[in-house]
Specification:
The protein is of the alpha+beta class. The protein has helices spanning 2-21, 29-42, 50-62, 93-113, 116-128, 152-161, 232-236, and strands at residues 138-139, 165-169, 178-190, 193-200, 207-210, 214-219. Strands 1, 2, 3, 4, 5 and 6 form a six-stranded mixed β-sheet that branches. Strand 4 and strand 5 (207-210) form a beta hairpin. The longest helix is centred in the middle third of the chain and has 21 residues, at 93-113.
Length: 249
């Protein structure tokens, strides 16, 4: 919790400094520090030291590409030499990838529980982001207080990165848990339970694991197995529920 608060404070401080520098006024270092600390106080943040201001200016310039004037004897001021704001920075490839994934998840969730305001954001993202992936990796139903939610993130990441997992699993019919090397293909919620579909190393058919029966998840050094060519639309086209009965088509 403290780390989250610290991150929020640093981000807020950088945004205030950015807002000051993109204004019409030019500042000496002393004036800039006075202005920033005054603005931080109004925002409910603590004052900063000279060293912190130097580091923040360096961060803006080197990490965000801010066009901060380098003070000289003839021009001893800090200001943006051209129009700039950290809020208008072009996203890099990694950030675009994460945004695409988030957009896909939001669009899957939207029909069930998302507000109209969030739906509008999704529409804007959809107009700005080209999604190249045709593979479904997560499907939503009503999202209640479900068991096993803590495993959704690592499983989702394993699906998108095509990484095998080592899963400790205990079915309803077993008194002991077993370790499974599992290549996950799809996450799906059905009737207030979450399931992951994929291939267990010892089976040549699709296996379905309930997330509420998972005891532990870890990364596996085994190679991700795609041999079953799982297609969610085909799999569920003639199926009610999540699993096909044994010896059935």
């Amino acid at each position: 919790m403290k780390q989250s608060r610290d991150h929020k404070y640093v981000r807020g401080r950088i945004e205030i400094l950015d807002e000051i520098l993109r204004g019409a006024r030019k500042y000496t270092f002393v004036d800039l520090m006075e202005k920033l600390n005054s603005s931080l106080e109004l925002a409910g943040y603590p004052e900063i030291s000279r060293k912190t201001l130097f580091n923040d200016l360096k961060f803006l310039k080197e990490e965000k590409g801010a066009p901060i004037n380098k003070p000289t004897h003839s021009d001893p001021f800090y200001y943006y030499t051209e129009k700039f704001s950290i809020k208008n920075i072009t996203l890099d490839e990694d950030e675009l990838y994460l945004l695409r994934q988030a957009s896909e998840i939001l669009k899957k969730a939207a029909p069930f529980q998302i507000s109209s305001e969030i739906d509008l954001i999704i529409s804007k993202l959809d107009n700005r982001i080209e999604t190249n992936s045709n593979n479904t990796v997560i499907e939503f139903e009503n999202n209640n207080l479900l068991q096993g939610l803590e495993y959704i993130k690592p499983i989702f990441e394993a699906i998108t990165s095509k990484s095998a997992l080592k899963i400790s699993y205990q079915s309803f019919n077993s008194k002991m848990q077993n370790d499974i090397i599992f290549s996950p293909y799809l996450l799906k919620e059905y009737r207030n339970r979450w399931f992951v579909f994929g291939r267990a190393s010892d089976y040549n058919t699709i296996s379905v694991l309930g997330l509420d029966r998972i005891k532990k998840i870890g990364n596996s050094k085994e190679e991700f197995n795609e041999s079953l060519n799982f297609n969610s639309e085909k799999y569920f086209s003639n199926l009610i529920g999540v699993s096909i009965p044994r010896d059935s088509e």
